[in-house]
Fold:
Amino acid sequence: MAEEAIINNSSVQDQWGQICSQLKTEVGDTAFDSWLKPLTLGSFNDGVMNICVPTRFMRNWVITHYSERIHKIWEKKNPEIKSVNFVVQAVNDEAKGLYSPTCRSLLKKITSTPTPTNIYQSGASALTSNANEVFANADPLSVPLNPQYTFDNFVVGKTNEFAYAAARKVAESRNVSFNPLFLYSGVGLGKTHLMHAIAWHIKQQDPSRNIVYLSAEKFMYKFVRALRYKDTTAFKEQFRSVDVLMVDDVQFMGGKDTTQEEFFYTFNSLIEEGRQIIISADKSPADLEGIETRLKSRLGCGLVADIHPTDFDLRMGILQNKAKQLGVEVPEKVCEFLAQKITSNIRELEGALRRVIAHSQLLSGKEITLDMTQDVLKDMLRSYDRRTTIDEIQKKVAEHFNISVKEMQSSRRARTVARPRQIAMYLAKQLTSRSLPEIGRKFDRDHTTVMHAVRKVEELVLEDKSLAEDVEALRRILEA
Ligand code: ADP
Ligand code: MG
Structure:
């Protein structure tokens, strides 16, 4: 070819090197390492420059996001180049040096996996077991599903019927219907149960479908680890053959910008390829805190379904269902009592029922009565009745340490303010059923700060007697 004669290889290589450094400054190290560094130069024919990309997944991404830019820069440097073409070329020896040895061998194995494999069935999964071989101590991408969390075991009532219908629809459709399905509610109201139920249903219908269920925390953990080992390409590859991706509790991504960005990429690529995504959170997409606007709007662009706090009828239904499942006779009166008293969430309701049943079984089948139930749950119900609020805790702790609630919520880090703040966070975790992010919000902090405070106080009460006494005194006041 004439062009090939004009442009000798080494000058093209040089130009490519310059383009790469320019792109690196433009897009930043993380994006560059993830998406552009793995590209290699291919052949040049008739004004068309071929660039090799290791996978189809990456190719789509690079085309959508960088091809125009690459073309523009190159055209300027070398007018002979009329267009840039991206071709998928599995990693081979030519690409040596672009990948770490582990990543290279993982990619080789993945690209030679003939059919989609099921990541969930970790034993049977070629992808997962390969990943395990490669990443020391790596765990499978998906976490195991709870066998109890099926549609059959899900009691439907007014407060959750919409979310249930949406979940069923997604589970039953062969074609992607709502994408993503976004489920939200307070804690213990059935989000995780519904997600697992969808997964079980799909697996039953078609075992070859590759379903990945994981928590947002796990996603972050895995991504951060991939960054540390500079193996983000391998990380992305794990999502390549996913048909259904479920990410639970995405509120925990709040404030984690790099992870969010990565999640956003993964999310978009999968949606573009027509894969189903299901997300849960403790709030609606618009109300999520610390989540980028573009991600929020992406999360809300499918079907958003919320689960409301339970009503009496649903609580009754759940208790009766659970008792039947466990094969235990529980009198109607007992169920009514529990359904009236324990209104916070289904997890606590189940916990109470289990306690009553366990008690009866320990006393070799002692009959379950209302009296016995009240007796067994005395402590629980007392603290339940008196359940204190975060506002109350802030007020009492501030009073105790002679500071104002405003100071407690401020950003001041002086120990005289910071310590009481940590104690208030710790007590909020202990005495209320609020989640870490909910507690954090009351202090204008994120959930990691609360987590840190809880651990700190747990340590301090062991070492510092006077602090332990303060905490105990406050607990008594708040529980009185
Ligand atoms: P979330 O993820 O919203 O915090 P979970 O899905 O973990 O809540 O539900 C908490 C507990 O309540 C689980 O044991 C779950 O099986 C049970 N549960 C929730 N909703 C229902 C329901 N409608 N019917 C039966 N059990 C339910
Ligand atoms: Mg959950």
